[in-house]
Protein: DNA polymerase delta small subunit
Organism: Lotharella oceanica
Amino acid sequence: MMLNRLDEDSFNAELKANKLLIREHTTTKIDHGRFAIGDKKFTKQYAQLYFSRLAEMSGRMKAKAKTRWPDIEMAEKLLTIPEEQCILVGTLYKEMKLKPNALDEYTKSRSDKPVETPDILCSEDDSMVLEDSHARIPLSFAGKGLPAISSLVSGIVVAVKGKNNSKSGVFLVDEIMYAGIPSQKQEGPTPASDKFIVLASGLRIGGKSSDTRLQMLTSFINGMAGTATDQQKSSEIAQVVLAGNSIIIEKEGNPEYAHFNKKAENDKRVGESITSALRDFDVTLTSIASNVNVLLMPGAEDPSNFNLPQQKLPKFLFRSSATYSTLECVTNPCQAEISNRKILGTSGQNIADLAKYSTAKEPIDFLERTLTWQHLAPTAPDTLGCYAFTDRDPFLINECPDIYFAGNQEKFASKIVEGPEGQKACLVMVPDFSKTGSIAMVNLRNLESYEVEFGL
């Protein structure tokens, strides 16, 4: 039966009169263009990406620095640093003793022994360098209240105040300033009643593990499980976001050394594993998409391109669920607007890389830092693979989202951060479902978030 909009409203009113639960209509706008790769030429150098990042951010950084330090001279280039106290604006680069060397990794990969690297590559010998398109200068964090070098990474555009030591060639930093939380625009009214988005990641369908918790998840989303209160909550779900690693490909041994033996057999087995996993995932996706809007993001372990931004998965991979208009395949990172709430997030590769090359008290601090730095993935392309954009840096955060998330995290965490201009954002660390059996839910009305666990 086909219903037009007027008939649908009448039909919903009748359902409400009979105390039946229905889902309210939700408007979703997806920015497909921001993270789309156009010409896909892989012969370009990465220097232009850094230049684009600095060029776009230097103006706002200099204006903010002059407001904060109005009586201090601003050095226009690192080539011409005055002797007296001054302000420098540039891109940080972190010299790391334990940072893997590509040539060494390749050499070791040719041996039969696996390459072992520590989980965290920070050391006491790390140092910072500031650079622009003309020169670079070492930094010494001499002032009080400065951040630990271990908390910083390469690729952050900053302003520093201090004095140049002409003898040693080192700039002595007194204060450092980040871009800060970007401005926020509110377009249109936000929901007046409770309306939720489900953030899930790491379903890893296709493995040998039990799918009981997965069945509980789909039943909950579809309003077919739990108490009357749970079903009421399910009816208020307006959008489901699957933030990467939706399938798992079973592999025997270490695929990095597959070229040493039976490569053809290994490739065939991997292909069969992908086909089987996609088929199983399509069944789950069909069940969810038949009831609610779904945004499907690729992840590090999904059959997608390795470098960020990962392009959206082709719909033809999902024969059944692709027939539903409620399913939208999107990029990673993903930017969308749901019921006038701006959503921005990744499948977690950016946070995993920050955790490897810097330290924080809590994992959610990494997410907050990227918002303060106004950059989704500052370590790209240094230690995080990304496409070599030449005319722009799509990872810049020019506008504060209402909901900012990272998928495939060890555990759930959430935090409300507020800016000096009244900005307000809900940060969410989306748990890996295959490890935790839990998802995150965010209320679009008031940005409150919580974890929903599915236990056996």
In short: DSSP finds nine helices and 18 strands in the chain. The chain has two domains: 5-30+183-252+261-453, 47-110+119-177.
